[in-house]
Amino acid sequence: MVERETWATRVGFLVAAIGSAVGLGNLWQFPFKTAANGGAAFVVFYLIAVTLIGFPALLAEFVVGRRTRRNVVGAFEDLGGPGWRVVGGVALFTGFWILSYYNVVGGWVLRYVLGSATGAYFDDPGAYLSAVASGPEAVAAQLLFLAMAVGIVAMGIENGIEKATKVMVPSIVVLMLALAAWALTLGGAADGLAYFLSPDVGSLVDNAWTVVPDAVGQAFFTLSLGMGIMVTYASYVGEDDSLPVDGGVIVVSNTLIGVLAGVVVFPILFAEGIDPATSGPTALFEAMAAAFASLPAGRLLGVVFFGVVALAALSSAISLLEVAVSYATDNTDASRPTLAVGAGVVLFLLGLPSALDTGEPGGFSAWFVWFDAIAYKLLLPLSVLLVVVFVGWVLGRDAVAELREGSPGSDGLATVWLWTLRLIVLGGIIVTLRLGIGSLFLAEDAAFFAPF
């Protein structure tokens, strides 16, 4: 088997993990999920979910990865026996499932970078989205985006992923800060910020049970949980690194960039009189494109904005692809480039329904929405649930011992973390999964049956 790689530096691991988290989940999903779930009310539930559920679950994945230094499937087998391979298998499948349609969105973003430079969408943003979202051109853009991710992963951990994300992540932060500073100067920016950051208590209470699944799912998605990414990345980490400190850096960085994305998007939408609540999943594309089409220097602003989104999307795509390649590398004698290309071919084929379905004019295809709904409402919470059960109730004291490595003086905190995982996190995920299954299979407009 091929010799297992490691991160060249601790900073390299942190930047790569932050890059995985800071992807389309923050720059695309977070604004439109916020708009679809009542604005600031959703932000409150999201922050609670990140703190009480996301952070402890992130540490659980770190513990499994570093303790075994194996791929996501082999890690659970080493710690719990062959029967627990299913936990890693679900995570591997979940990440692969998400990446299949994630690549399609990545292709759209590349098209919007070009469309911004040429002004192609300025006359009719809705028609441009319809042309970009599906059909042969969408397939070609999907293939280009996927080829970029495959190329980086094929170069390895140190020379590929680490070097690429060290450039991508700082670029994302700098450009987002510049965009936010500009967005706050627009007329209507105050209304946009109020919508995004001033919660209505009544809305919090009235919409709690419908907002919670999306808020928890968003926390999982933006922290790259339930997809095997953090287990895989932590398998390359040294014993002297403090997992709680590293996890805290990743969670805080991810959350701040997610909020920063909202500070960019909502002032622009309100300045142009676009209602975020009705723009839905098209907020990043049709709504933002319409805004850039009417703003001074709109072409330049569009290139910068969608360029940032493209970098973020690529940083997450390479982390999702690495999970599958890591598993194959540990279990075959094939070279990393060969395995990366092979995984890319399978992903391309799996993503074809999302790219080819013509869907509704100006919207997303039924198959795309179907893939996304299953990921958010079923696969992600189920995968995280299995990890939490395993780490909290099977690994138990060994998990606490691993968390303490590299973190002197954390004995009490490690014990608190374990019981938080066993009770609060476990309970929260069970409720979330139950609500998600209800909307997916049992509701009057059950999402699972929509394409059929």
TrEMBL record:
The chain crosses the membrane at residues 7-28, 40-64, 84-104, 138-157, 169-196, 216-236, 248-270, 300-325, 337-356, 376-395, 416-443. It is found in: Membrane. CDD domains: SLC6sbd_Tyt1-Like (cd10336). Keywords: Membrane, Transmembrane, Transmembrane helix, Transport. Its main location: membrane. Pfam families: SNF (PF00209). GO terms for cellular component: membrane. It is a multi-pass membrane protein. This is Sodium-dependent transporter. The lineage of its organism: Archaea, Methanobacteriati, Methanobacteriota, Stenosarchaea group, Halobacteria.
